[in-house]
Specification:
7-stranded mixed beta sheet; globular; alpha+beta
């Protein structure tokens, strides 16, 4: 498995991974999938390699996961987004590799503060975030996706 940048088809595959997983496990519908497609497309359309990052995990032509850093809020915090690993590859260290690539980029790009939003119940992801120093800073009820969730924000203050 290789960690690399954008390749043709990466946007569609990352959207597909999100759409399938969150529909099956959390009953999110087309609004969620469309929002992921729109926002990932928007990030990559305005991509600035000095502040933004996008990585995929690929084996040959197969894309098995991805992660992005949206640094458009500079000098404010960068945002970790679109983090997903294919069902068949979960638990094999791929998420760790993607997270390391994203956070190494943040350090080299001078991002001193990174945040992400997620929701309660994604326990393996939360454990990974916390292993990398992210701290839960906010929780609130949310119905954006059509089901009752507890939205969470995690923040990481980088040591350079």
């Amino acid at each position: 498995m290789q960690i690399c940048g954008h390749v043709p088809g990466a946007i569609g595959r990352i959207v597909e991974l999100h759409g399938r997983y969150y529909a099956r496990e959390w009953r999110f519908g087309r609004y969620f999938e469309a929002k992921v497609a729109n926002e990932l497309g928007e990030l990559l359309a305005r991509f600035n390699p000095t502040r933004d990052g996008f990585w995929i995990a690929a084996e040959g032509e197969e894309i098995a996961g991805g992660i992005a850093i949206d640094g458009s809020g500079a000098p404010g915090p960068a945002r970790l987004r679109f983090f997903i690993v294919d069902d068949a590859r979960r638990g094999a260290g791929l998420g760790e590799q993607l997270m390391r690539a994203a956070l190494d980029f943040c350090r080299s790009a001078g991002h001193r503060h990174v945040f992400l939003t997620t929701f309660a119940g994604l326990d393996a992801a939360r454990a990974l975030y916390e292993r990398h120093g992210f701290v839960l800073t906010e929780e609130r009820p949310d119905r954006t996706w059509g089901v009752e969730l507890t939205e969470q924000r995690f923040d990481l203050h980088m040591n350079h």
